[in-house]
Amino acid sequence: MPSSRLLTRGMDGREKVLAMNTNETYAIEKQAAIPVCYESAAAAWDSALNYSGTPSNYYGKIYENVGWVRGTKSTDGEWGAYLWVLQNKIVFQTSTSYWWAITNNLTVAITNVYVGSLGIYGPMESNVVDIGPEIPTNFPGEDLSDTGTYRVDITNIYYQLVIPAIWITPRDVVVAVGNTNAIRFTVTGTNLINGATWTLEPNGLSGGATMQSNCWYSRDVYPGNIATSYTIRATSLDNSNFYDEVNLRVLKIDIEQIETNVSWTATSVALNLTVDSYLGNGTANWGSTPSGISGNGTDITFNPSSHTPTTYIVRAQSSLLTNCFDTCTVTVLKVESIEASSPVADNSPNTFEGQKSWPFDVTKSPTADEHLVVFYKDAIDSSFNVQDFDVTLKANILPTEISADQFNEIWSKISGPSSGSLNKTDTFEIKYQNPKQGGVYRFDFDLGLSGCSNSEANVVLPLAGAEVDIIVQADIERANTFATTVVARYTWLQRQNPINGLRWFVQEGAGDYLGRPDNESMPTVWVYNQVNISSSFGMGAVGTWKGKPVRIAKISNFIAGYGVRKIGVCSVAAWISQIYGTWNDSAASKSWDAGWDVGGGASYNTTVIALVADVWDEADDKNQKLWPNSAAADNYVTPDSFSDPDHEFTSPGFLYMTNP
User: Fold this and answer.
1) N or C: fewer beta carbons within 10 Å in the chain?
2) Mean predicted confidence (pLDDT) in 113-138
3) pTM metric for this prediction
C-alpha cells in the first residue's frame, strides 16, 4: 500500500479553506434557571439540564468564546440549578476535490481532512454539521458551579495525502524469442485520475514486439521474433511527468555451429553464438552430453585432445531463462589406427597408430620401423611369376558410427614402386592391388578434416641386394687377366699345388665377394638382408644376379670355379680344392660347377640364368624372402678400398692380384 503524509499550508504555501454553508452556520444561546423548589441538588440539575426552552440563534455569527456556565444552589433547604450555554453550529464541506496538485502539477489523492479543533473527516464530505462545544451533562455537585470557555479553530486545515505512486506489474519480464504468448502488463497508482497512456520502445520493428490495447490500465505485449530489450511505459493522463517503466527482454541463443567435426589432435576449437543472439544482461552457460565441453559467455574454447572421441550434444542455455537455449552437435574424431593386412603377408594384420607419420628407414636393423611385410617366396609360383594379391588398408575411425560419406577422405601412395594400384581412394577401407615389384610402399590417409593430421602405413616387399651381373661379367675379364698371369708364371704342377690354391682363392678372403651390393634409389632392407660384420666379416648378404635373389657366397663359388678352370687346374684337383674354406652345400657346388663350365667355354648368360633358377629351391629362408632388385649395384669398391660391409660391395681379392 502507498504510504501517506500530512500536507498543510505551511508545507506547500497554499491555504486550505473549508467550504462553509453560511445559511446553516450560526451561534446558539440557551438559558435555563430553576427556582429553589427541589429537595436535592441533583433533581434541580436534572430539571435544568432537561429544560426545553427556545434557544436564541444568531445567524451568520460564530463566536470565539463559546461555552457554558452551570451550577446548583441551596436556599432555605431547597435546591435550585442554572445552566447557560453558547454554542456554534458550523455546516461545511471538507474539501472541494478528492485530489490535490503538488509539485509539477502532479495530482495526488486526499485520504483525510484534519479540520482545526473540529476533527478528522474524509475528503469531499458535504453538509458536515458540527455543534459545539459539547455541554457536559454530569452533575456538577452541591453548591458548586463551573464554566467552560472554548475557541473554535476552523483555520488550521490539514490534508492527509497518499504519497504519489504509479506501478506496472510484472516488473521485469524475460522471454525467449518466438514466444507466442502475450504478456499482460497492468498499471496501478494513487493518482491515475483519468487513466494512463502506454508506449513500447523500440516500436515498429519488423517482426518485433507488438502491444495490444485492452483497457487503460493494462496492455498485452506479444514478444515477436526480434531479440532485444524493450521499455514499456505507462504515463498518467493527468501529468506526463508521472510515469513508470518496466523492461521486457526478448532473449535469443543461437549457436553458430550446427554440426561440426573436429580433430582429436586439434589443441583449441571455438564454439560461439551468432551475432543476433541476445543474452539480456545475463550470460550463456555451456555444457555437453556426455560431459566435457563447458564454459560461459558468448563463446567458449575447448581442447579436443583431452576429450574422448565421440559425439557431444552441446547446449548453450540462458542464465536468466531455462527454456531459452540452443544445441549443436560436436563430433571429436580420431583416426585411431591404420590396419594393413594381406593373405600373403608374414605379419598380417599390422596396425599403425593413426594421425602420425611412419617413416621407414631401410638401414634400421635389427629392429625395423613399423611395416607390413610380404616376402617374395609367398607371392610367386614355381615359375617365379608374382601372383595377383591385394593389401587391404583400413582406417579405423572413432567414434565408430562415423561413415565415410560424411567426409572427403582420400588415400594416396606417398612413395614406392610404380607397380600396383589403389582400387579406390575415397572410403575408409581400400585395397592396393597386384604389386609385382619389390620395394617400400608408403601410404597416406587424409580424413579430409581441417586440423586432422594425416595417417600413414608401410608395406614392404623387401628387396634383395642390387643386381651384380655387370660386376660379375667385369670380374670374368679380371679372372681372365689373372689366369693369363698365373699360367705364364707357374708350371702346370705348381698350379695343381693346394698351397698355391689356398693363397690365390682362400686366404684373406681372396676368393670371396664381400659386403652388401646396394643401389641408392632401390635399396635393400637391412633387417632382412643383414651382413656379417664380425667373425665372417663382410659375408652373408643376398644380392640379385640375373634377376634372381642369390646369396653372394654362391657368386663367390661361381667365380672361384671359373678362375680355377682358367688357370688349368685338373678336374680332380679342382674337385679336391673345394674342401678348403667353407664346406660347399649343394647350391654352392652347383655354383662352382657353373663357373667351371663357363670357364670351359659354356655360355655365361645361359649357364647363369639356369643356375640362379636351379639353386632357388635349395636357397635358405633369408634368400627366398627377398625380392629381385633390378637396379645395378652402385656401391662397388675395389678390394683394397673395402672397409664397410654395410655400405660397400667388393669382388674377390684374387681378381686384383698384380703379382699372384
Assistant:
1) N
2) 87
3) 0.72
